[in-house]
Amino acid sequence: MIGWRRGVALAAGLGLTLAAAAALWYARFQPDPRRYEVRGVDVSRHQGEVDWTAVAGDGMRFAYLKASEGGAYRDPSFAGNWTAARRAGLRVGAYHYFTFCRSGAEQAANFLAATPHVADALPPVLDLEFGGNCGLRPGPETLRRQIEAFLAPVEAREGKAAILYLTPEFQAAYADALPDRPLWRRSIAVAPIGGPKWLFWQYHNRGQVKGVKGPVDLNVYAGGVAGLARLAGS
């Protein structure tokens, strides 16, 4: 009996040690910087006040900021983050969270009203995911029409092709319905496997960066520093 209990205790201790090691590995995970030299963050009001000078000093080169969601919501931190991040020298872009419960045209109008037109901004991003979305699940043809209704006026103003941010679940459900656009793929701690090529890869959803209190999404860009400048149109 004593031996059995000791074995259980050792197994439990080993399990805790492995779990702690895994948590530490995940907290420190980042793609090989020799291959992916351009890193950046995406933020919303949930990150609170951000010290963008410190973010830039920690090696981040770009920032995507949540501007709007659905047909009416606008992120209250967007304007301040936009100004401060650009002042700190980061390449900056805006993203819109797409909801199934409002038309694409309504959502485009909301995004355009929430964001400035700046020639050297990064392309606009349309965030496509199920998490936090409404309960509707449109058919592929309906979804494509609504996405295109969003993209048409936004791309016309910006003069740049928008980027589609995709979670694995969304891509699996709607891959054939998506317009042909550059992609930003979410694949936590594992390089995106299969499917079309991507420009941006979100590799962490609880990263740590100087200047941001608490966890933040971390990303890499596939095209290098010069490619990022070209993407911004500068």
Q: How would you describe what is shown here?
A:
The protein has 234 residues and is α/β, with parallel strands linked by helices. The protein contains seven helices and nine strands; from the N terminus they run αβαββαβαβαβαβββα. The chain has two domains: 1-30; 34-232, Glycosidases (TIM Barrel). 38% of the residues lie in helices and 22% in strands. It has an eight-stranded mixed barrel, surrounded by five helices. β4, α4 (104-114) and β5 (125-128) form a beta-alpha-beta unit. The relative contact order is 0.17.
DSSP strand tally: 9
How far the N terminus sits from the C terminus, by CA atoms, comes to: 73 Å
Architecture per CATH nomenclature, i.e. the level-2 architecture of the largest domain? Alpha-Beta Barrel
Would you state the CATH class of the largest domain?
Alpha Beta
Largest β-sheet summary: 8 strands, mixed, barrel
Mean pLDDT: 92
Strand arrangement within the widest β-sheet reads: 1-2-4-5-6-7-8-9
Radius of gyration: 20 Å
Which homologous superfamily in CATH is the superfamily of the largest domain? Glycosidases
Spans with pLDDT under 50 lasting ≥5 residues? none
C-alpha geometry: globular
Give the count of structural domains.
2
SSE series: HEHEEHEHEHEHEEEH
The CATH topology of the largest domain turns out to be: TIM Barrel
State the secondary-structure class.
Answer: alpha/beta
Strand share of the residues? 15-25%
